[in-house]
Amino acid sequence: MPVFFSSFETLPNPFVGGGLPVSTNRTKWPVGGGAVAVQPGWYSGHQTATFYINLGLGTTGVPLPANVTQNVGDQATIQVIQAGTNGAAFYNCVDITFAAPENVPAVNATNCFNSTVISFQRIHYERRFFEIQTFQIYAKMLRPTHSGNRYELTSPTAMPKADGFLWNQKMMIQITCRGYATAQFMQPEPAKYAHAPNLEGKTFMQPEQNYYSHHPGRFVYIKDEESGELFSAPYEPVRAKVDQFVFSVGKSDIQWTVEHLGIRVEMNLSIPTHDVAELWTIKVTNTSGRPRKISVYPYFPIGNMSWMNQSAEYDEKLGGVVASSVTPYQKAEDYFKNKYLKDKTYFMCETPPNSWETRQQAFEGEGGLHAPSALEETELGGNDARYEIPAAAVQYRIALKANEEREYRFLFGPAFDEAEISAMCGKYLSKEGFAKSASDYADYIELGRGCLHIETPDKDLDNFVNNWLPRQVYYHGDVNRLTTDPQTRNYLQDNMGMSFIKPKVARKAFLIALGQQEATGAMPDGILLTEGAELKYINQIPHTDHCVWLPVTLDAYLGETGDYGLLQEKLPEVNGKSYTVFEGFSRAMDWLLAARDERGLSYIAQGDWCDPMNMVGYKGKGVSGWLTVATAYALILWAGVCEHQGKSDLAKHYRARAQEVNGAFNKYFWDGEWFARGITDDNVVFGTQKDGDGRIWLNPQTWSILSGAASAEQRSKMLPQIEKQLDTPYGVTMFAPPFSKMREDVGRVTQKYPGSAENGSVYNHAAIFYIYSLYSIGDSDRAYKLLRQMLPGPTEEDYVQRGQLPIYIPNYYRGAYHQYPRTAGRSSQLFNTGTSPWVYRCFIEGLCGLRGDVDGLVINPQLPSAWDAIKVTRLFRGARFELDIRRAKVKEVTVKHADKVLPGARIKNIQQGATYQLSVSIPQ
Questions:
Q1: Measured between alpha carbons, how far is 405 from 413 in angstroms, rounded to an integer?
Q2: Is the separation of the CB atoms in 621 and 601 below 8 Å?
Q3: Which residue among 26, 57, 381, 724 is buried most deeply as judged by most CB within 10 Å?
Q4: Tens of pLDDT along 828-865?
């Protein structure tokens, strides 16, 4: 929405109008847009000039229409009726008069005056706010652009942890709107090339990353050489209140535009498709309308690389900073493992700088990062770092004419030696190299564009489903969370998503996973993806659920591809015996049936799907209610596959065993209104009405619906209890109330902070299982409500509370809504989650109702009752389906193709390359 106006040619002292009587012929400009007219005023050139509209969302230049009518006073062309952000002022009318400073008093006395009595410059630079608009302070701070392919945030403080991420099969970088970054690469285990300034512990990616002043980041300082004034982009470390801020996250790059003191800084981050490097473009433009002398200081801290050996220096031959280290080790054999690691970090400059600094403390000095001592001098010190914390800082001293710009390119990343650095520079460090890399990487990301496009009444949802959700699904299946030993359940579910993106990848994943099946039929806790990989972290703890995920994920793959030939593929020999995929699945089901106690309940060992539930069964007796009913569901799914393969006796066997498992589950876990979660080693049932903390858990209810263990009567009791006890404005929690203290017969899940992670958060993986189960029983309104709550927004209050852009689904939002409402809904900012493939599946098979079977595509949309119609484009088995889905006076779903009703709402004999236009009627 428009708030500030200034001329293109000059920077006079314009005053925007306000306070005049409202008249009916004014065009109001609400949040959605409007029209503008400009008076020529004292300078006739404005008749054909470009005027600038500062929306608090970035400055937009708009040509002045030749036939515009300029009105004043009560005939004012436009009235602003909303307020903006980033220094936005509130006016109730806008008559724009361009006046020289000496003419301002006359303007105020005539047709237009400033009701705030504060000049444009003071509003613009001091970011003055008015009481009347405080309730609108975040208006329009976030918006999709470029047909939804980008998201822009216009405040660095409203959502300080808002971030974006880029990846390829060798690296990943997650970076915030304020410039803090976390990056890692594979060699083959995960490693870093930018570190904290202190020693870091090696761990997997953590939720709710806490950022601090010396956290690794990518920054640019700008110093006015004449006044000494200083600011930094994107926002850290100086934290100056800039005049314009735009953080723009795209699918294949991340950009910032920051303007302050009449200088605009544009930063662009991209990465290559196949190499490990960050490609940075930094453009500086003089927008002040007068000549300027400034210094530009890119500052990329490298941090504490090694307690054994670290240093840094500027290499004039290579053209940048090179920091070197030796990865610490103790065992002699580790020397040989580490011998060829990329222990150097480089920061290469296309344009030679005037000066540089490689010693972090010399750069920071006594001023701190918000005012580094090194910037007080004419040039940087040119120091090397000798067993000191290294950094890469360079300086460009430049004189800029009005509107002049300078562009710089930098390469940042790890290397084994100087020869590799030189090769990387030759490949990328040029305008042409950057352009080719950007084009190649955009093509690489486009490979994950997905198979679904929707047009619904919820445009924000459309944007997420069409542009961003498949990107997250693609990330998971493409790189397996950048680990060499993904948990088996994660590996299978992440690749389930690839059934919809790149089915051949999903197919290969089944073969890799089953190739590591144990002789007993059990699946390992992790899948080893590289030679020499070892099970680490949580994969060293015994879990009992991994076999369940084989038929669960296969169900999606077969529905999407119809590729039953996979089942006849041969697997590597186990103990001298050769098996087919089909036999491997059957062995896994037999293992699940064997891993039960005398009651027919599934042992939990030191965890099931809930990793930190590690003390329910560590003595060897505890059982899992969820795993018991999940076993039944897996058996039912596998029985269906057996039936299709003509093995009716085997199908009958597994269905009978599933019925037994469901019966045992009902006998020991039904608590009157919901199912309990488990039984401890000491035979204590938990997750019941008697419990204070952890009274009701979502997963047992969900999977009892999927397996058919819950009768209609039981569901009628369960669902209201879920709504009453687990629902929040940010989604449905994993259980409630969260544990407030350690419970030694349940485990470390009870020690996590209440409402965080698995201790009663809105754990989206559990929530999407529940949503999927709701679609399985046709409860479309409940399903849609919770599905929509997974996505931040659409209100700005919700965006701010969650603190995350709507470009991915995090693994959780904070729970403990009733205990700690201030933090409830806060995003973990962790995009590694098995949630995303299930969400995509729910949109495709649930809401849109487009699921494949042996013969073709079955159509059964489940729109929320508030929607009358949607349009869907679905890519399926090489064909394109365009569906117009509308409510009509029909009793059941009716599908027409070429004006003929399709029997059973199913289209068969699908031809690759064909386009099918379908008219779908659903009951009102």
A1: 27
A2: no
A3: 57
A4: 999 999 999 999 999 999 999 999 999 999 999 999 99
Which amino acid is residue 782, in one-letter code? R
Q: Which of 463, 464, 501 shows the shortest CA–CA distance to 479?
A: 501
Mean pLDDT of 434-444: 98
- Write down the pTM of the prediction: 0.86
Q: Before 12, cis peptide (omega within 30)? A: no
Closest among 199, 85, 75 to 139, alpha carbons compared: 85
pLDDT of 102 reads 54
Confidence label for 140 from pLDDT (cuts 50, 70 and 90) = low
Distance CA 377, CA 151 (A): 39
Residues 6-44 have pLDDT tens digits of 222 222 223 333 333 332 333 333 333 333 333 333 333
Q: What is the DSSP letter of 565?
A: G
d(CA 170, CA 894): 48
779 tagged catalytic: no
3-state SS string over 826-870?
Answer: CECCCCCCCHHHHHHHHHHHHHCCEEECCCEEEECCCCCCCCCEE
Chain centroid, CA 888 distance in Å? 37
Q: Which of 545, 611, 671, 727 is catalytic?
A: 611
Q: Determine the distance from the C-alpha atom of residue 859 to the mean position of all C-alpha atoms in its chain, rounded to a whole number.
A: 30
Asked if residue 484 lies in contact with residue 528, where contact means CB atoms within 8 angstroms, the answer is: yes
Residue 460: CB partners within 8 Å, gap ≥ 6?
A: 144, 791, 793, 794, 806
In 70-120, DSSP assigns E strands to: 78-80, 96-97
Phi, psi of 592 (to 5 degrees): -60, -40
